[in-house]
From TrEMBL:
Record pathway: Cofactor biosynthesis; adenosylcobalamin biosynthesis
Family per record: Belongs to the CbiM family.
Gene name in the database record: cbiM
GO cellular component assignments: ATP-binding cassette (ABC) transporter complex
HAMAP family tied to this protein: CbiM (MF_01462)
Membrane-topology descriptor: Multi-pass membrane protein
Keyword Cell membrane listed: yes
UniProt entry tagged with the keyword Endoplasmic reticulum: no
Subcellular location: Cell inner membrane; Cell membrane
Phylogenetic lineage: Bacteria, Bacillati, Cyanobacteriota, Cyanophyceae, Nostocales
PANTHER family: COBALT TRANSPORT PROTEIN CBIM (PTHR43627:SF1), PTHR43627
Entry protein name: Cobalt transport protein CbiM
Length: 257
């Protein structure tokens, strides 16, 4: 048991080192940057994202009122997203590649809760780290805090039903949520800046193709890291996972004679 925990900690350290060193970048690496989207598209994505944020607030209120002991795990999910999504690798003009970290929170608390946590993470990064921006917050929130978590949640439950393998489900959910975030970002950029020849399709192929070079290995690394963090949670936060009905409660042994 001790050896297993030691191996998990070593693997977490190796993957974290890769994500920090291999995927880090100067401050110019960011989500879709401030002022990059035309005003019409910036407003459009704000309008699309706001209803999810409102529903997410209601979801978070229900979770914290029903189970106040889950607040620490909620904070951990937000911190995990903040740290991973703050690691930047320049990819194409106006945006970048980076892990997202939203898959874990989506599996734990559902996609609506992550729509709030993810949006707050993006807001703090825009204000404190110059990553992203306020005008583009709606677009960044839709891709990373809404589309990614919803994909993670659905993929996790579908994989569980098909395979019954929880760790495989978590890996696939985290990795594909990461990839879908960048598919959506590529579509957002292509809609705002269609190619003179080929329009949206040509522009989307260009953005998605360049993103894929860095994003595919990042998504695989994020999936592995999320599984390792999940193992850690199973060891040290099993009561919270039982409360969320993500693991079964271990039967208690009656020691009375």
């Amino acid at each position: 048991m001790i050896k297993s925990k030691r191996v998990s900690l070593i693997l977490i350290g190796i993957l974290s080192f890769y994500l920090v060193v291999g995927a880090s970048a100067p401050a110019y690496g960011m989500h879709i940057m401030e002022g990059y989207l035309p005003p019409g598209w910036a407003i459009f994505w704000w309008v699309v994202a706001l209803p999810f944020f409102g529903l997410g607030l209601r979801s978070l209120t229900r979770i914290t009122q029903a189970n106040p002991e889950l607040k620490l795990l909620l904070a951990l999910s937000g911190a995990f997203t903040f740290v991973l999504s703050a690691l930047k690798m320049p990819s194409v003009t106006g945006s970048c590649s980076h892990p997202t970290g939203t898959g874990l929170g989506a599996v734990l608390f559902g996609p609506l809760a992550m729509s709030v946590l993810g949006t707050l993470v993006l807001l703090f990064q825009a204000l404190l780290l110059a990553h992203g921006g306020l005008t583009t917050l709606g677009a960044n929130a839709f891709s990373m805090a809404i589309a990614g978590p919803f994909a993670a949640y659905w993929i996790y439950h579908l994989t569980i039903r098909l395979t019954g393998k929880q760790k495989i489900a978590i890996f696939i959910a985290a990795a594909l949520a990461d990839l879908l975030t960048y598919i959506i970002t590529s579509a957002q950029l292509a809609l705002a800046f269609p190619a003179p020849v080929g329009g949206f399709i040509a522009s989307f192929a260009k953005f998605a193709g360049i993103f894929a070079i860095t994003q595919i290995p990042l998504a695989i690394s994020e999936g592995l890291l999320t599984v390792l963090v999940w193992n850690w949670l199973q060891s040290y936060s099993s009561p919270e996972l039982e409360l969320l009905k993500l693991i079964k409660q271990e039967p208690q042994i009656n020691e009375s004679i």
